[in-house]
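Appendix B. One record, verbatim.
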Amino acid sequence: MSERRRVEVPVVGARVLEDRAFVRRRAELSLEAGPARLRIDAVAPVIVDKTLEVRLVGAKLGAARVCREYVVERDFPTWRAEVHAAVRTATRAVRELDDRHAATTAELASLEATRALLLTELAEDVAWGRGVSATAKEELERTVAREEALRVALADLQPPRRLAHRELADAEDRARQDPHPNRGAWIELDLECERAGVVAIEVAYLVPSVAWRPRHRATLREGKIELETEAFVWQRTGEDWNDVELSFSTERPSLGVDPPTLETDRLAVRRKPERVEVETRAQAVATTGLGRGEVVAPEVPGVDDGGETQELVADGRVRVPSDGRPHRTTVGRASTEATVDRILASPSPFVLVRARATHPGPRPLLAGPVELVGEHGPLGTSELRYVAPGDRFELSFGPEAAVRVTREEERLGAESKILSSWVRTTTVVKNKLSHVGDEAVRFELVERVPVSEIADVKVELEDEGTTPGATVDDDGFVRWQVALSPGGTSTIELRWTLAKKDHVQGV
């Protein structure tokens, strides 16, 4: 039987899901009439065999199979050979620098011992009245000068040694993380060509060890937010993707369609307890953006797509080597007008610059980290929830450095009135504000008070003692509009009372 012909069918595209990818290879080959036995090398060893799909134009497919074998180092693919070469290079660099450091340290220790002997001999000569000879003095000076030179050399060796050790650790870590150190795979195809000519071959299959996550960059400039969405993709499949078309999907085929498990829910009658046990909890008020409706975002593992599968396409062709490291590519851009104001949300000690905008679409913004950029450069990172097209969202672009905040909270003792079953506890919160800038500043101060869910516990905002101008909503957020002149100060006070029946325990 004739030997198989090795052919190049490169990876031209991949559809990346949250934890896997569908890979496409494509090529056009000139084949003679009759049977053809082909071999496609450098295929990912983790390929899922049953997902292999072959499409042909100009020939008929007889058989297609995935084959694997153990390989030796000389047959490693390029990226794996580069990793092992990097380990060898870093090892040589570390060994050379460590040898120089050890030799210099040994010479320095020898000189220090020599200097100690010289000083002992000189002290003996002086004690016997012989004085200090010029030769001994020159020898001592040469020894001290050489010691100083060696100490400088040791200090100069420290940075390159640390760098070399760090590069070696990084290279060894990359080598250890290789999931297929001695495995190779290829695809064998048996074709039948009716006539000689060009045959178009397309091969598709599924591979694990791939993941992607969205990330955004928001630039606030001249009252506008410029949004750039990027996809960070990792893959360690054993095959490099060079100059490929990438698309990113939020589809989750691994979730399955199993119905929920039903359990017996037994009801029973019991006596009403004499005491009511309650507890406090911090409840996050979450929505999809600032909202055109009161929709609570569910906790979804992986990429939050709002329940509707999204498909994002990379700008241009991308290279993603099989190194397990994140590689970024742009998948979308948008620009929108923004309303910029400032907010102090206690207990944060900073007044933050806040930008509010409406997402222009046409695709939603997926939940993920956001890199913040201002007029003068990067400001830090934040997070963005899922934002639908036409929905409003907000981002914080760093603190207002000219405003200083000191927050004090005091809980007064519980008190109860005669012939009353209610016990009251008062809490006083003071925000002391000062402005050290040259221009007046306005911002919104936000505090939060508890919200009761039972009739035996009440939370009351006291008008007396609370700074006028406060507004409170159903979620317990209390807000003031604050204006500070240059060098100005202000104190915003909040006073609220928690009243409970005396049989209520836990608060």
